[in-house]
Amino acid sequence: MKRILYLGAAALTGAALLAWVLLPGPRAVQTAPVTQGRFERSVLEDGRTRLQARYALSAPQAGQLGRIDLQAGDPVTRGQVVAELAPPQAPLLDARSRAEQQERIAAAQAALGRAQSNRERAAAATTLARNALARSESLSQQGFVSPAQSDGVRTELQLREQELAAARQDATAAAHGLAQARAT
Fold first, then answer.
1. Could you give the residue ranges of the DSSP H alpha helices within 23-88?
2. 101: which DSSP letter?
3. Whole-structure pTM over 0.85, yes or no?
């Protein structure tokens, strides 16, 4: 029995010794005298802005926006001028740009001349087709031309009239292209 007591006491002493080794030690602290003064602390964090209502302002034409005198949160009333938009300044023409523009004008003039020639040629072909139809109808009344041949001449006149209308539209488009090149 003494032996069990010695073993129990040894086990209890070992456990106490182990607990004493594993206990955390004292912490090192820094001390300072207490003084009265101003307390400052800054916070550096990212914030997030949430808009209640978003309004987009737009202009129908390009331009240069003047300085806006309003600050965020300023009230705006109906009809109040928020910003002024000035027309954009025309870029200066250097020698290369001027030469390119003159060539565009010359090309537009050539296109206009070609379109006018095509219009005159289509007008002459239409006149020729009208004369052929008049001859064909007079010969058809006399019985010298078949109705199928008369129909072919009428169809030819319709084709020539369509070509004339297209040539007139091409000439109009070429004239507008020349006016646009000159305006630029």
1. none
2. H
3. no
